[in-house]
Each structure stands twice: as C-alpha cells, then as structure tokens.
Amino acid sequence: MAGLMRRSMLERRSILARRTVLAASALIVAVIVALCGVAGSTAKAEDKRIVVARNEGFHPLRPLFRLFGAKRRDRSGASRKTKRSRGTARRHQQRPARQHKPAPVAVPKDPDANVVLVVGDSLARGLGKGLEVAFADSPKVQIRSWVNGSSGLVRDDYFNWPTELRQFFAGDERVDAIVVMVGVNDRQRIRDADGSHQLRTEEWEKRYRARVVDMLKAFAASGKPVIWVGLPPTRSSKFSADMAHFNDVYKAEAELSGVVFVDIWQRFVDEEGRYTRTGPDVEGQTTILRAGDGIHFTGSGYRKLAFYVEKELRRVLETGAGGVFLPGLNADGTVGPKIGAVLPLTGPTARVGEPLAGEETPLAPKEDSLQNKVIVRGEPLPPETGRVDDFGWPRR
C-alpha cells in the first residue's frame, strides 16, 4: 500500500514538472516572437527615420516621437517656399500700382524769355536741374546754371564768388533773376592775413558774415532780384548744426539787403524735426529724397527742392518784387538803408533803365499775367490735374 502511494506521488510530480516545462517553453517562444516583431518594426522605423532625417533636420525629442508613433507637421523647405510665394503674391495684389505724373515736355524758349541764373556749389547744380524740369513747359523762363561744386565763401583763395560775380555782371550777359545756394563746403577754418580762425568762433563768425555781405553787394550791382536758398539738414548731427548756423547768417543778412530767403529746412525732416532720407515727393508719393552721402539729394529730392524755390521765383518774375537794391546809400559803403530792405507795396517795380510810372503813363498790369486774369477779369484759377477742384471730363 505504501509503495502504491509513493508511485502515485512520483507520477503527479512528473506530470507537474512536464506542464511547468511546457509553460516555460511557451513563454519563451512568446517572448522570442515578440522580440522579433519589435526588431522588425524597429528596422522599418529606422528605414523611415533615414528618409525623414534628410528633410526634418535634428530634433532632440524625435526618438520619443518614433516610440509613440507621433506624426509631426511637414515643415519642409518646399512648403515654406510655397507659403512665402503665396504671401508675396498676396501683398503685391493688395499694393496699388504707383501712378507717376508724366514729365513735362520741354518747349523752345522765347527769344525774350526771362533768364534765371543759378549760382553756387554742388547743391546749386542739382537745384538748377530741378528748376529746369519745373520750367520745362514754360517758354517764358530759361534756367542757366553757373556752379562750382567745391566752392564756398571760406576758401576765397580757391574761388572768390564776389569777385567773379562783379566781373560777370560787368559783361553783356542778360539776367532777369538770380538764385543762389552756397555754403555746404564752408565747415572749415578761415585763413587770412591775421591767421587761422576756427569754425564758428567769434573771429570766424565776423569774417564769414563779412563775406556773405560782400556777395550780396555783388548781387546788388546787377540790380536784379535775388533768391537765396537755405541749406538742408544732413544725416550728421554736427554737420546739421553748422548748416543751421549758416542759415541764420544768410537769412539775417539777406533780409537786410532786400533779398528773398527760402528756408527749406522743415521740408526735409520728419515729424520730430530730425533728418530723414525719405519723404513725399512733388506728387505726394513717398520716395527716397536724399543721396547716400546724407548731404545731397536724389533726382526726386532736387525736384522737391526746386518746387519751393519755384513758387518764389514765379512771384518775382511776375511782379518783379524781389527787393530794391540801393547801392551806395550809406556813407560807410553798406548796401541798403539801416531800417531794412525797400519793398514795393503796390504793383511791380520798374526794371533798370525803364522810366518810372506816372500820371501820364500809368503802370498797367500785363494782360496775360495771373494777377490781371484773377483780380481784374475775375477768371478762376486753373485747377491742378487730379486735384479735388479739377472737374474736367474725361478724367486726365
């Protein structure tokens, strides 16, 4: 009996051991199959990673994206390029085409056209070109330029403007009005028999002012109306400070001599009064007005500069009211009375050599003058093309 019981227990243990081995074998096989599947999926992921890595670049969290199967948004260069091109095309569609006013066609000048002489330095050269454009369609006005780009009032040993002007006016050249713009080269010492004088010191100021007065006396010898154009602001703050100081000298002496002074400073600064390279041109379109050196102007800038001079010049040519010079009035040789310039209050002034108006031959306005058309005839001012009061049809 005992033997049977021992045999039964051994058989049970053998069966249990076999089952355990089978279970373990099944578990091992399952683990092996699982590992093979992971290896295969990893190999496939590696293949995909190699392809994707060429387009996506490095990312520190990419292994986690692969492990959890996350898909990132396509950021390829082609997509960015497509979006950029679409955005650029959309902006170009929204931006209105810039309308340019056609340049005036130059017409032949009349033999008796008013001759305007532009004198000065390199800024005057550009101003002269701008005035040529402004009066291109006017047969009654002819612009001539006499400039020396490196000249000024300090280096009279290089070019002496008062002396040259006196010699010019002593000749037979006909001039009806003068526009002067000079001073951009004068930021330097004045050297004379008394030594060298530093810029904007008291001694420098006295000598520089005397040279401005001497140039005004040379203009007075011609008996012609003169327009003195001020200097513009520059990119350099120190340079601008000197230009503003020169303008104060020019304006003070010009007003004492009956010369029209055109201050252009505020026309070429921003809202805070600082130098700006861009701004509205004569057509109201924002464009580049100043040259790369921060001193001179572009073609559009010179045309805008000429616009402000043109208004005064037309008035001077129309009425002759550019100031009456009285050379030799004072005993000390200065030009003009101490009280200031003598300006006409009624009607145009007579030109040199013409008889004065009196009761026998009253001075009448010109038939084709703007004053006669508007004040005497009552005709309306001609509207500017595109302005709100331009009712012409069809639209120009």
Automatic annotation (TrEMBL):
SUPFAM superfamilies: SGNH hydrolase. Residues 73-101 have a biased composition (Basic residues). Residues 386-396 have a biased composition (Basic and acidic residues). InterPro entries: DUF459 (IPR007407), Ester_Hydrolysis_Enzymes (IPR051532), SGNH_hydro_sf (IPR036514). Residues 73-109, 377-396 are annotated as: Disordered. Coiled coil: none annotated. CDD domains: SGNH_hydrolase_peri2. It comes from the Bacteria. Pfam families: DUF459. GO terms for molecular function: phosphatidylcholine lysophospholipase activity. This is SGNH hydrolase-type esterase domain-containing protein.
